Amino acid sequence: MPKAREIMTEGAECVSADANVLEAARKMTEFGVGALPICGTDNRLKGVVTDRDIVVKVLGAGKDPSQVAAGDLAQGEAVTIGADDDADEILRTMSTHQVRRLPVIDGHDLVGMVALADVARALPDRAVGDVLEAISAA
After folding, report:
1. CATH number (domain holding residue 65)
2. DSSP string spanning 58-89?
3. CA distance linking residue 86 with residue 42, whole number of Å
4. 97 and 76 Cβ atoms separated by less than 8 Å
5. pLDDT in tens, 14-54
6. The whole model's pTM is what?
7. What is the 3-class SS of 106-137, one letter each residue?
8. Which domain holds residue 87?
9. Is residue 87 within 8 Å of 1, Cβ to Cβ?
10. How many domains does the chain have?
11. b/e map 26-52, b = 16+ CB within 10 Å
12. Rounded Cα–Cα distance for residues 76 and 89 (Å)
């Protein structure tokens, strides 16, 4: 069973919790991603901001993205996966928390991001299909 470090996208770029959402959106565009980890001034992971968060919680709510901090979109404790956790644990975590992307942590260091698409490329279709169904049910 492949480990997170074997299937993740390395070098995840953080957005500062203090950065505004417009800056986060620009970083997403620059890196061609739909989610960015949010890091505090202590370089610790505070959460994840997604393109959907920006659309629904900021633009759809009529807020100015240059006036909303990325950290304001972090909800509770960040859901992560360990770099040495296997694909089954990744799928369990995604299903339990109904997320499609997970920051990958090695100790306290952010080392990458693993998306459902990364897992889909590494596992048989049936396992991924079950998780996609669980994530999409809510």
Report:
1. 3.10.580.10
2. IITTT--TTSSBGGGG--SSPP-EETT-BHHH
3. 28
4. no
5. 999 999 999 999 999 999 989 999 998 777 888 999 999 99
6. 0.80
7. ECCEEEEEEEHHHHHHHCCHHHHHHHHHHHHC
8. 4-136
9. yes
10. 1
11. ebbeeeebebbbbbeeeeebbbbbbee
12. 21
